[in-house]
TrEMBL record:
CDD domains: Riboflavin_synthase_like (cd00402). It catalyses: 2 6,7-dimethyl-8-(1-D-ribityl)lumazine + H(+) = 5-amino-6-(D-ribitylamino)uracil + riboflavin. Residues 1-97, 98-194 form the Lumazine-binding domain. Pathway: Cofactor biosynthesis; riboflavin biosynthesis; riboflavin from 2-hydroxy-3-oxobutyl phosphate and 5-amino-6-(D-ribitylamino)uracil: step 2/2. Keywords: Repeat, Riboflavin biosynthesis, Transferase. This is Riboflavin synthase. InterPro entries: ATP_synth_asu-like_sf, Lumazine-bd, Lumazine-bd_dom, Riboflavin_synthase-like_b-brl. It comes from Paracoccus rhizosphaerae. The keyword Repeat applies. Its EC number is 2.5.1.9. Lumazine-binding repeats lie at residues 1-97, 98-194.
Amino acid sequence: MFTGIITDIGIVRMVQMRGDMRARIGCAYDMAGVDMGASIACDGVCLTVVAKGEDWFEVDISAETLSKTSIGSNGWAVGQRLNLERALRVGDELGGHIVSGHVDGVARIVAASRDGDSLRLTFEAPAALARFVAPKGSVALNGTSLTVNEVDGNRFGINLIPHTQEVTTWGDAAEGDAVNLEIDTLARYVARLAEAGH
C-alpha cells in the first residue's frame, strides 16, 4: 500500500528486454534499508526490488504490466525521470489517500495551461474508468495522489501547485503524455455496491 505522496524522483539507468523487461532505477533512497523483494511504486506501478546497489534498484516488469500501464505505451528510456514512493509502513502519515500501486488504465493529457503559478491539466480517461472519477475526489496519476477539480464526460481536470511540480515529475508534463491512472479504492467499492443494489 502507498499514499500517493512522492518521496523521490528516480532516473532510469538501464532497460533490457529478456522475457520480462528489467529496469535499473537510480534513486536517493538509503538502499541499505530497502530489502530484496520490497515494493516501490514507480510512476504509480507497484514493482518488486529484485537487485540493488548503493544508489539504485532493479525491477522486472511483466508483459501484463506493460500492457496495462504507460510503461508499455511510452516505453521507459534511459534518463527518464520517475515518481517513486516506498511502501507504507505501520505508523506512517497518510498524507494523500490509500493507493495500491495497481494501475487501472492509462489516461492521456489532452490540454495543459498555466493558471498563475499553477499548472492546469485536462486528462482523458478510458470510458470504463471515467465513471469512477468525481469532482473533489482523489485519483492517483503516475503515483501522485491528486484532487479532481472538474469532470466532463471522460475528461477531468487537475490543478498542480508549484510544490507538486517541483518534487515530482509533473513539472515535465506535456499535452499528449500517457499517464498511469489508479482510481480511488473507495470509489470502486461504492460503485460495486451501487451495482449490487445495496
